[in-house]
Design brief:
Protein name: Transposase
Largest sheet: 5 strands, mixed
Helix content: 40-55%
Number of strands: 10
Shape: elongated
Number of helices: 15
Distance between the termini: 31 Å
Order of helices and strands: HEEEEEHHHEEEHEHEHHHHHHHHH
Pfam family, one: HTH_Tnp_ISL3
Organism: Anoxybacillus thermarum
Amino acid sequence: MYSQFIKELIDLPDVLIQKVRKEEEHWIFELSLPEQCPLCPVCLKRTIKMTCKKKQWMHGYAQRIGIFWIELPVERRRCGTCGMTFSTSYPAISPRSVATDAFQQWVAQSCIGTSIQAVARMLKLPYTTVERWFYIHAPSFLSNDIQPKAVCVDEFAFRKGHDYGVAVMDAETGEVYAIETGKNEEAIGRALAHVSRSVQFVVSDLTPAMKKSIQGVCPEATHVVDYFHVIQLFTDALERCRKYVDKWGYKRENVRYVCRLLSQCPEKLMEEERQIVREWCKESDDLKSVYRSFQHFRYVSKSKDEQQAKRRLEAWMHRYSFCPCSVVRAIAKSLVKRTDEIISCMLSPYSNGKMEGTNNKIKLIKRRGYGYRNIQRFALRVRLETATIL
């Protein structure tokens, strides 16, 4: 029974276990193959053994004994017909590697859900070795059958003002499918090409490059503008008005208090706070226009069906397209060109909320050393951390 357990632990085809020995802190299993005569890979004739050396590979890990090794003879043979010389090799064992393929795959799978550094410390292996094995074998753990129904597309910055990337994520499961360098139309198209076959809804921001890329790569998909980015137009305008009026100081507590009162829904404010907002609006006509248009758009976004949303949105645009405030006119002008996407935004259950969280996660992982040059490895790491591995 003991020998049978060892045989299952080794799990190599056609090997014979000779003995087990311990050298310093390592357990080594001496293995051998039945007598055989490898044929020449060139002329397929019989060969002659020249030399024989034994080589060791890391093959497994046990809780109490740590990493255990296997030892197999590696013969140098020569063909008597063509004079070709070669070294023998074994299936699933690379002659130039320090570990077997089975051990490398186990190490790569152990890195999922934890950091590479933690696995390297547990196994007492160099970090660069574990990292190399992870990026070699980790793609085999992911499913190649990518068929998402709805995806989120958004850009993020590796270094603001310098290096940017585009990420594509499943809107339902949160799995990251692709990350590409750049934020132009070509980069967005490359990222969407991974999911263009099955996607039905694409959620993005209001940039023209997003719209053109979605129409070019996914012409049959419904483009949904993210509600967060639409609301951000109004909140940014309120912030500019606040800075322009400059009546509430620069202390962080005061600024946060003012921003909360201006961006919060009036129904969630107390009567005293609503009165303060009314007084602020009386002091600045621009602030009053932006605040009113913001609350009116919130009313539009609560539409129950497509007809109601279209009717309310047209009324909103008719009212604010010729507003005296230039900021409100600019917002109305940008929304007029995206009427269909704005209506889809109000009625669609999808948003870029998960993507915004992924951006924060991307920044966190980047601080661990995954920079611009390692973007493909970085994309794989993010996808593995967000995917469900079966």
